[in-house]
Every structure is written in structure tokens, then in C-alpha cells.
Amino acid sequence: MIYLEFEKPLAEIEGKAEELRAMARSNEGMDVSKEAEALDRKAETARREIYDKLTAWQKCLVARHPDRPHCKDYVEALFSEFTPLAGDRAFADDHAVMGGLARFNDQPVVVIGHEKGHDTKSRIERNFGMARPEGYRKAIRLMDLADRFGLPVITLVDTPGAYPGKGAEERGQAEAIARSTEKCLSLRVPLISVVIGEGGSGGAVAFATANRIAMLEHSVYSVISPEGCASILWKDAERMREAAEALRLTAQDLKKLGLIDRIVKEPVGGAQRAPADSIQAVGAAIEAMLKELAGKKPDAIIKDRREKFLSMGAKGLAA
Description:
CATH topology of the largest domain: 2-enoyl-CoA Hydratase, Chain A, domain 1
Largest sheet: 8 strands, mixed
Strand content: 15-25%
Number of domains: 2
């Protein structure tokens, strides 16, 4: 278990419980079950207390936790007959973006998402979930395919932001993001988006300009990272905690502002504590959002999405 900086009290309690159990395993006849169970109860209480009052910055740390389930985990658990499609038919295949044809509850869909990777090798291969222009152009190609065949699109957002490297800029990063966002707005089929970790900047908006947007309870969604915001505003990245509060990037803040439609509850301690439960909760949210849009005609779907985004400024000012 990887513990975050604010989980140190919890780490100590759970560490003691594990030490007791390890002693019992190496000493036959030693019974520490009562003591270990007492520590488990104490840990559960501590975990609830910690996660009931997380700050915006602490939620950023949870959203970035390396053990959180990633896009690949959701696709494998929730979708059947997944057929990955690669390449943008122009330059290359971007491994930071995965997508393809699949079935969700036996309904044909197109699923697209950012994939960060789970270990050093896969994280480098996936570029830590930071897509290049060819990743967004691949997404556009898949959305075109979905539009042509009348398939709902489901996107899973988990990125620090689009890749800002020299090559990406030379190949038209901003244009690719803008065209992906434009494609989301013009789709004649339902578009459902779930922020499962980080929703960073235009790299997230390019997938999340959707009819319905959900966020996991401890995920974040913002125009810039707290570190980047602090560096620009105060020339000091160490003021990221202050920036995180000012950005109002938590699921709870964004629901109040009307920028997202629902919050998907996570297990106490975050999605990394019980990945299977988190994945099933996201699956239930996707099912509910698809039902809300079922039977709507293409013009109604486009109008629904357009009105949703046009009304956001007014809701934000009112809040």
C-alpha cells in the first residue's frame, strides 16, 4: 500500500496491525486476532475522519495516486468484445489514448480514454497519459466512426494535460485539441464522459465536452494544475495548496457550479482501496446516464449538449 503524505497516522495504525499478524504467522499458537481487529477498527475510523475533510490539494494527491484504477482497468472490467483501433491515419498511434469498439451491457459503443500506465515501462510508453496531437486525431477518427454507425461514445478522462513538447506543438497540438472539442459538440450520438482521476486543461476538455459528465468523488478537473497555476500567478510552485483551493477543481465544487452532472462515490480511502467497487460504481453511473439520453433524436442530442455548455457561464456567475 502506497500512503499519501496526509495518511501517515493511518499508515502507522495499519502497519502495527500487519506487524501483529506477521508475528502470529511466524509463531504458531499466538493469537492476536482481537488486538489486530481493534487496530483495524481504529484504522477504519481514522480513514473516515481523514477522507471526510480532504482539502482540494489532498484530493489532487488522491486523484494522482498510482494505484487508482486506470482507463485500461475500466475497459477490461466494464466492456466486452473490446476491439482496439490504432492510429490517426496521418502520423502515428499515440499510446496515451486508447479506444475502440466495444459492448457495454451488450450495447455497441465506442470507448475512448487516457491511459497513464501502471509501472515505469508502461508509464513511459503511455507518456503518463499526456496525449500528443495524433492521440486527439485518433479520438476524432473514432468519434466519426461512432457518428457514422449511430454508436454512443463513452470517454474516460485521466490526464495531467496535453503533452507540451516541441514535437507536439510542431504537429499542431492546439489545433488537434480544438478539433476534438468541436467534434464532441457536433456528434449526433450520445456522448458520456467520466473523469476517473485527473482532468487537466484542454487535454481533458477535448474528451469531456459531453452530454453528461460524471466525476469520481476524489477526482479533479481544472483549466491548469495547481502547481502550474501557482507558478504563473505567484512565481512559486510551492503555493500549489493555495492554488488548488482557488481553482475550485474538486467534484463537489464543480457540481455546485453546474459544470458536471453527477459525482460517483468512492470507497472510504479512495478508489485505490477497492478498485473493483469503484469500477462497478462508474459502470452504474454510465448506465444511468445512457438511459437519460436513450431514444433522443440526433438534433435533440446536439441541442442538449449545446445548451448545457452555453448555460455554464450563467451558472458559474450565480454561484
